[in-house]
Amino acid sequence: AFFKLPSDSFKYLGWCDIEDHDVRGNQLRCPRVREAGPSEEELFFRGEEHTLKKRKQVTDTEKWQRKLQENWENCAELNLSFQDLGDHYQVENFKRILQTLIRVEKLWLVDNSLTDLSAIRLPRCRELNVNKNHFTSFKQLPKIPQIQHLSLAENNIMTLSGISDFRHTPLESLILKRNPCEFQEKYRQLVFSSLPNLKTLDGIPKLPEDCSPPDIRFFFKMCTIL
């Protein structure tokens, strides 16, 4: 037999939609931020029309109050992983929130089926984890000028093209495990030559053999004066 839990009528609501609390976004470490649930037609089809009574038309004043309650602008550390962004409107709302993270320093976006965040800027982000997404290029990552630790494991990055964009950032550690580019010939040498300030790649510190040997062509261009 199917039994409804007391919380069933709230399962498609965000915390901002629940009355009588003063919790703000910057107080939450792992909030659920995807927009609430299926259409009314789908809810009727599922036999979940009881959740509709909690939905109501939102006024401009309530929208402003919600923005104040979200308070994403003051988040310094935030985990937005595993959001199950199955619909286009949920992805758009997710990106709207990312655009407000002007003070975030540590951000986790693991397993969200993300493909392109190039329009997003995270000016203070020092640590970013976007493991298990669908990025195919470094060009699809957000703008992260202060990045120190970047984890891109289990994406679909084919080549190292674009990695030099991080040359002028304080990037110290990079994880590219289980990306196709990891199988490129002289992979570690190529990464460290593109990022001379990098200290650790895939959890392994920079080794002497990771330093590219001098280009032999350079010596043919030299002349010796006796």
From TrEMBL:
User: Does this UniProt record's set of keywords contain Cytoplasm?
Assistant: no
Keyword terms of this UniProt record: Leucine-rich repeat, Repeat
Q: Which InterPro entries match?
A: LRR_dom_sf
Q: Record keywords: Repeat included?
A: yes
Q: Which domain of life is it from?
A: Eukaryota
Q: What is this protein called?
A: TILB protein
The record's gene field reads: Lrcc6
